[in-house]
Design goal:
The protein is an alpha+beta fold. Helices cover about 35% and strands about 40% of the residues.
């Protein structure tokens, strides 16, 4: 059930991210979640989009280095302690989290969180068994 994330390696210079978002928008690719981490020379842009295949193709054609990674998406209640509860589930099952970031969602009662772990199946099973809803690519496409 893991969802697909695009990782784009971006030169750390003015206009680099807008070039990517413009390329995607011109090809009807809609952003659902994003995260950017930067160093002095380059950035790592992580994206969840409505059309992974098109995004990968147009960005590759534009000369960007792209990697597709499967990540876990989880629906979390919008209240204090809910993220902690999800992360504790993973911790109790000895599942290490590499990073996380939130979705842009059209709901007032929930947040959608992307979590990168080594074993997606184990993380999904642990979270589902604890009562959390796992987000699928179909869910992403409905946003």
């Amino acid at each position: 059930m893991a969802i697909k994330q695009l990782t784009v390696f971006v030169e750390n210079k003015q206009g680099a991210v807008v070039s990517i978002t413009d390329t995607l928008s011109r090809h009807n690719v809609n952003l659902r979640a994003l995260s950017i981490a930067e160093t002095q020379d380059f950035g790592i842009l992580r994206l969840i989009v409505n059309d992974t295949k098109t995004a990968q193709q147009v960005l590759s054609d534009a000369g960007y280095l792209i990697k597709i990674t499967e990540v876990v998406g989880v629906k979390i209640g919008d209240a204090p302690g809910k993220l902690t509860a999800a992360l504790q589930v993973l911790d109790e099952k000895n599942i290490n989290m590499e990073y996380l970031y939130a979705f842009m969602a059209r709901t007032e009662k929930h947040a959608y969180v992307v979590i990168r772990v080594e074993d997606n199946a184990a993380a999904e099973a642990a979270l589902e068994n604890a009562g959390f809803h796992i987000i699928t690519n179909a869910d992403v496409n409905k946003l």
